[in-house]
Amino acid sequence: MDILLVGGLWLDGSVWDDVAAALRSLGHRPVPVTLPAHAGATLDDQVAAVLAAVDAASGEPVVVGHSAAATLAWLAADARPPAVSRVVLVGGFPAADGRPYADFFPLRDGAMPFPGWAAFEGPDSADLDEATRRSIEDAAIPVPEGVATGVVRLTDERRYDVPVVVVCPEFGPEQARKWVEAGEVPELAKAGRVEFVDIDSGHWPMYTKPVELARLIARS
């Protein structure tokens, strides 16, 4: 099966290298997606890149979205509901219609740079050693303003028929269920089939638990 891998903020497709290798060993065809991040790129540009990967896939792919890119994976399900077999959300939840995509941190010179590790102290980054932190920070790609502040538009309610798997890294499945039940994740509250699975990691399991993450994705 084709498995499309979409990284979160500041990441390119190479973040999935170890996960992709593990998925290939399990007999799947991983497709890491590098999102447009040039000056002037917009949320629509990034959605178009994901949809191009969906359209090029063999059969009905699984779309994996990490962190903020959970919204990109969900937008793919919205735009191509019959073509997406499943959405896997790793450490993130889809934004609702009309909400900004990812205006989480300050903008500078038309982009949202990586804010530094103080913003992620605690469970998010506790399993990252100093070398991995430096590697992530050095490779971080500023998120264009047109992406970070882009408005999410969802139009096809058939997206709620697409099965969803939520991989829970720095939070647990029970906590995720409570957020959904409390109405904090309205898109998943309306979804017909949502499964929550645990992974013992921080926010970036593709670095710290790539084989385990690949197995969870494949199992879905």
UniProtKB/TrEMBL annotation:
One Gene Ontology term of the molecular function aspect: catalytic activity
Where does the AB hydrolase-1 domain start and stop, copy by copy? 3-215
A Pfam family reported for this protein in Swiss-Prot or TrEMBL: Abhydrolase_6
**Superkingdom, taxonomy of origin:** Bacteria
Residues forming coiled coils: none
Annotated protein name in UniProt:
Pimeloyl-ACP methyl ester carboxylesterase
Species the sequence originates in = Saccharothrix violaceirubra
